[in-house]
Amino acid sequence: MADQEENIVEETQPTENTEIIPNEEQPAPNDETTGVEASPGDQTQNDAEEPTVDDQTIEETQGTEENVAETVEDQPAVTEQPEVSEQPAADTEQAETDDVPKEDQPSAEVKGDDPVEEKAEDAAEEQREDVKIDGEEESNPVEENGSDLKKDQSTETKTTEEAPHQDQETTTAEEMKTEAKEGVSFDATATVKFVLMPSGQVVTLACTLGQTVLQLKEHFSSELKMPVSTIILMFDGKVLPDDTILANLGVGPNGTVQLEMQSADPVSTPIKPYRPRQEYHMPDVITVKVESEDGKGYTDVVVEIERSTKKKPFLGGYRHKSTGIEYLNASAQTMPKVRPPNVLERYCRDTQTVHQINKPQQTANDMATQMTKIGVYVSNMEDKLMVPGKYTSADEFHAMRWSKIVIIQKYYRRWLARRYVHKLREEKRARVEWERAEELRKKKEKEDRIKKEFERRMNPNSKEDFDLLFHALEKWRQEEIDRISNTLTGAERKAALCMLLDQETQLLAAIDRHKLEADKSNKTKRIQDFLAKTASPKKWKSKDGKYLEMDTPYTIRAKELQDIYNSINMKYLTQDERLDVLLTLKHTVKEHDCKLTQEIIELIDREADLLMRGVKEDNLDGLRKRISTLFLQYIKTPTFNPEASKLLKVPQDPSTLRKNIYFCPSCNNYLPSTEFPLSSNSTNVGKCRRCNKIDNDARVRQDFSHYRYMLKSLRRAEETYNDGSEIAFLLQETDLRYLVENIWNGQSVLSAWEDLYDLVMIRWNKHEEWSPWNCILLTKDEASAHDKLSALEEGYGQVFIHKIKQKQTLARNYFSRLPGMAEIIRQRAGQRDMGSRGPSVAGTAVSRMPQKV
User: For residue range 488-505, what is the model confidence (pLDDT) as tens digits?
Assistant: First the structure.
């Protein structure tokens, strides 16, 4: 420890006021080898409590006397002054360690007979001989203010002699002398155990030997929230006065003493249980008041505290050579304040012009040769005979170089041209290949569509399939009627029409048979879909994008009922397996006692009895269908299957049936509003969907599948714009059919393509929402090219644009008469179209001419 402190003295030898601490060589602030306490609080305290000249002199005297006492611990106390100079090493060592924190100081007990410490002191003396302080440094103003504590032996002796002459600190000096004589340091710590009476609670504190009883009372007064006058401290049964210090109780450094604490008034103010203070935890967010830029007020700034787990890096710092105080560098996350630009104009006469001089220079190049001579033989087998060629002048050389440059340019330009031609050839090949692939794709799509339509006609399953079938039948009937009317007359015509009617009747009967089969398969599919929906677990999407599933008691119950229903409908089961299924079904329905369950149990017992009697399975089909139908009714009852209540069309609450219920004049039924189709020109509810379908199959037989597909494509395209388009979602299949057939003549306005599957309805001006007066009918390829236009005038001429405007005006005039569309037109157009209330052309108001009165 002595060696480490000596090194500190050598490093802090004052040449100037401050010294830079290198980042690489300086250890962490809390390292024991620095000899300086790195705590910010301690540094602040040292700065605040700067000792005066008298205080500093007393501290130096105290350090001197303490080292004398430590050196002669085993000998009687010596108070003579000359002995101070006999211990120069200890004196200097104590003076050098005055700024070292107490916990880092060496022990106060030093044995003089230790050979290791004697060697260390000798080495320290040798080092101090090289680090002597001049007389001028003794008269440094910093030292006169008491900031320099590291002086040599003569300076310390002089300070010790001058200390008793200080008038303001005479008592303190005498106490320091008494302390040095007794060999006890008041700054040493001891463990004090306080026994709180009468509870017997023991409180242990680490106190310095110089603390008085009054200071201890004040400490416990703030901790126990009671006045100082009511606290009594006792030692060995005696009450301690307030001016008694712990050193007077006979306790030494690092020793232990026990005191008793009582209350002077145990009835009114008893001693409360001691509760240590909880450690302060900084919150995660704090509010700081920051002065505004104009300096007129303060602004509350919310600061988020970041708790870093890693140790703060050591960034170096400075050490005051006189006082030994260290100032460490720190870093913050706050951006530095930007300095305002200097508005003052500055002029400088200096320039950055460099004068360059081109000066040719030729250096010598030494070469060596070797010739045959006496004693040296050089072979001439590889020698060559060089004949000088024709002399070339400078003009000839430049002309030759120019001709070579022209040749190189020709070949380079040829290479560029070949590369360009090759690029064009590759682009053409890619274009031809793409066109061929597109043609094959379109051809394949058309074949697939025709094949799919043929499959739909042969095996119809949905309503759209039957609509397509009826439309084909009606088209065939009209063609036959036209052919008969054009070729036959009279009785032959009537006979041909009768034969045509018989063929139509047969085809209608075949369609009805297909419809019965489709209804049967669709019914089974609907039942399975219903059971699967009731038994499906709850599903939602988590934050990481994965779907989570959860089974509830209701879904588990629905899953059990689904398994039982599938089991009772299975075929080719043995007698034992069938009896097991019936037994499971019987135990399931027995849980609820009602008329439905009693009927199911009765049918189950009947089938089991017939199976035991050996009845054939073909004779049990009707009975099994009854059991399956009743059990399906059992599954659809919300009382037995709560999950079914969410999928039933008929609500469980009868009061809800009074809302949104309309009357169908065709079938005389009251149905919900969802069963009635509404078009944009509807003024009343009209017939329900089923009645409209029956009427369409019997008379009109129209197929709206093409327009339904086109309307879906239109709505899907409008959703991608995400600009609040509404009109496209108000149109129905009939409205779109009128727009395509009557306004745009059912063909592309550019290429006159008539296949509805290849036509799409898109926006004419893509910056405005779609409407019947802002649309155009094109093929898919033409629509893709139309969307790439930034301005309509770039791709179309004025004649074509005028033709499109005329068609859009016809569409506006037709759809503006519809109730719902007229309101939207009024809202969209506003003052631009409807404000004038006068004539308009292509949606633009025409101003009226002034009239003479």
Answer: 888 999 999 999 999 989
